[in-house]
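Checklist before submission:
- one chain only
- standard amino acids only
- sequence pasted in full

Submission:
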Amino acid sequence: MVEVDTSEDPVRTSSRILAQLLSYTRQMSAYDKNPDINVAALTSACEQRLEDLKKVLPQALESMKDKSSIQGSVRAVQAQLILSMDVVEKAKAEASRQLIGLSKTRHAIRAYHR
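Returned file contents:
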């Protein structure tokens, strides 16, 4: 867990947190190509960074005249998060289908051996 440095410029801190969130969500989006990605750890890291962002973002927005860059970053994170969730949900659904198939196979084998 990384603590928010309250002595640092809130705009810089917000930008850094948003960049980290974008990185984490991009990594999660690659789960379909690399199932070894630890989605649980990335999700936990995202949750923590979102909590950190909630603490610093109001101060950052107060001190900014032009909020478009930070709004653009938030939109990018949001879009990437939606993509990541879609990839993980598809992988989850596929794993569920495979488990159901394996379960049916197991039942058929057991019935055959009775």
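Reviewer check: The two ends are 54 Å apart (CA to CA).
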